Structures are given as C-alpha cells and as structure tokens.
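Translate sequence into structure tokens.
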Amino acid sequence: MLIAQQVATQLIHALPGLVEQVRGKDASLGDQVRRAASSVLLNIAEGNRRGGKDRTHHFRIAAGSAAEVGAALEVAAAWGYVEEGSLGEVRALLDRQLALLWGLTHRRD
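Result follows.
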C-alpha cells in the first residue's frame, strides 16, 4: 500500500468530529468535506492500480480533492462552524498528503 494511501486513511479517521460540527451548521459543506476526503483515498487506490498517464491523472484528482478538503475547512472556520485551533492535525495530514501526491505526479522515470 502506498504511503499516500495510508495518509489518506489517517485523514478520514481524523475528520468525523469536524465533519459533524460543520454539518450541524451547513449540511452541504459538511457533506462536501466528507465526499472530497473520500475522493482522495479512492483516487489514490484506483490510480495505484493504473499505469502511465491514467495513473498520474488519478493522483492529480486526489490532490485536487485534498486541496478541496482544506479549502472547505477554511470556509468552515471563517464562518465560525469550527474552531481554528481544531484544524491543526487535519492541516498537517493535508500538507503531508499534498506533498506525497506532488511526488507521485511529478516523477521522473
């Protein structure tokens, strides 16, 4: 299993409490965070079974979804749905996730 896939799983495990807080104020935004986080893991898993440009394409989609999770949580914090201080672990996981995905999408074979 790729490290990126392990980090995506850790991200999903870190999100339920935050997603519930967001959903309590904005159900649509909470659902978007949940779907985007799921997309990260699902696209990494699918990309890992593909080859060539198709593989890279899935890793790029995963990176976009990871960025979406981060942006949605920034929106939630800006609206006061979650405390800014509660995002530290998730931000660290997202930073690591994006770094790993950058490496997977910018490989020199």
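Note: The first helix runs from residue 3 to 14.
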